Amino acid sequence: MQLRYAFRVYPSAGQRGSLARAFGCARVVFNDALRVREDARATGLSFVTSGELSKRLTAAKKTPGRAWLAEVSSVILQQSLRDLDTAYRNFFDSLKGKRPKMGPPRFKSKRDTRQTIRFTANAGWKITPGGKLRLPKIGDLTLKWSRTLPSTPTTVTVIKDSAGRYFASFVIETGPEEVFPPVTPEVGVDLGLGHFAVLSDGRKIDSPRFLRRAEKQLKKAQRALSRKDKGSNNRNKARIKVARAHARVADARREFHHQLSTKLIRENQAIAVEDLAVKGLARTRLAKSVHDAGWSQFTAMLEYKATRSGRTFVRIGRFAPTSRVCSACGVKDGPKPLHVREWTCKECGTVLDRDINAAVNVAKTAGLAVSARGAQVRPVPVPAQRDEAGTHPEPRPTTARQTGIAPL
């Protein structure tokens, strides 16, 4: 599989200027190629191939209007054309139903707060013995190494995010090198808002609610931004403050997801989760809380870490009635409103915690060997049926059809 390892980059003032020039050249090449293809489509001509676009790029470097494209590495310009091909391919695949619906490629703006350039192996970039990243026509960039790379990277992408931070993202070809020793437990995970995750063994992980906790600071920064004049330097400074506040929230959420997913992968041999309709939930009044939870990012981490560590990851269908079925006897008890957090099975009389019961059913639906003990809150005596209660003046024989009596 391919993994990405991102590290913070601290370029100097001159290197920031070189990176800005590279970002601008890659953006111009992308927009020029997109305009050529859109003009061909508007006039009824055939689709312009990637080879033809590459030839036009080489010719454009020799013209006075595009001579400055030669000031940056030619690799990042060619990779910009590859990005356009990928955007078109994804759009055509969405029209064929091979992937979710998406729009056609759009022109990039110099005001976009996120900029990227990509260097492949033939660009001549390398990591110096001193631990710096040497990029052609940019120089040696200082990186904050948080870990060692498991193998030689194939590509490196330099990213400038909306908060003005720079990152170097390395693509690593890796296999299951970090296989954990086998363990016995298997667990089902029910994701929610009251608790971020409820496990089939009865454990509940509280939701950190990073966005909710930072709302006061975010509102203050956003109000300060709204009072600045558009186009002024003060507005740009205020925009960066807002972006950095949001970046801190996103970083904290990502760190929480990494720690929890790694813990679950280490402790369990198999993990089952439910395929939630996040897009649908994001259109409800719970949209902010749904986005704050970040379920998709968490389940994606579980999936790739399970693959890499030799664990089993199962995603069950979103229409499985995990909250309606008693995990003790398997009887479907019907839908329940969200405020009902505990319910009693009418068939066996078990008092069930809604979330733990759902986690147990997730695991059972996935075929995992889990016990329903975690779903049971407390056992209660099963009351006698109405036609069984009391005594009768004349004894009558009991039959297997009588309610509450199992046939012999």
List the topology elements.
Elements lengths: L1 E9 L2 H30 L7 H11 L13 H22 L19 E6 L5 E2 L5 E3 L3 E6 L10 E6 L5 E8 L12 E6 L3 E5 L4 E3 L3 H4 L1 H12 L6 H35 L2 E5 L3 H4 L5 H7 L1 H15 L2 E5 L25 E3 L6 E3 H12 L10 E3 L30
Parallel strand pairs: 8-11, 11-12
Antiparallel strand pairs: 1-5, 1-7, 2-6, 3-4, 4-5, 6-7, 8-9, 9-10, 13-14, 14-15
Would you list the SSEs in sequence order as H and E? EHHHEEEEEEEEEHHHEHHHEEEHE
Radius of gyration: 29 Å
Oligomeric state = single chain
State the distance separating the first and last CA atoms.
56 Å
DSSP helical segment count: 10
Strand order of the largest sheet: 2-6-7-1-5-4-3
Specify the overall morphology: elongated
Alpha-beta classification:
alpha+beta
User: What's the mean pLDDT score?
Assistant: 86
Largest sheet: 7 strands, antiparallel
Question: What can you see in these coordinates?
Answer:
The chain has helices spanning 13-42, 50-60, 74-95, 210-213, 215-226, 233-267, 278-281, 287-293, 295-309, 354-365; strands at residues 2-10, 115-120, 126-127, 133-135, 139-144, 155-160, 166-173, 186-191, 195-199, 204-206, 270-274, 312-316, 342-344, 351-353, 376-378. The protein has 408 residues and is α+β, with helices and mostly antiparallel strands. It has a seven-stranded antiparallel β-sheet. A five-stranded mixed β-sheet has the order 10-9-8-11-12, sandwiched between helices. A three-stranded antiparallel β-sheet has the order 13-14-15. A hairpin with a 6-residue loop joins β13 (342-344) and β14. α1 (13-42) crosses α3, α5 packs antiparallel against α6 and α6 packs across α9 (295-309). The longest helix has 35 residues, at 233-267.
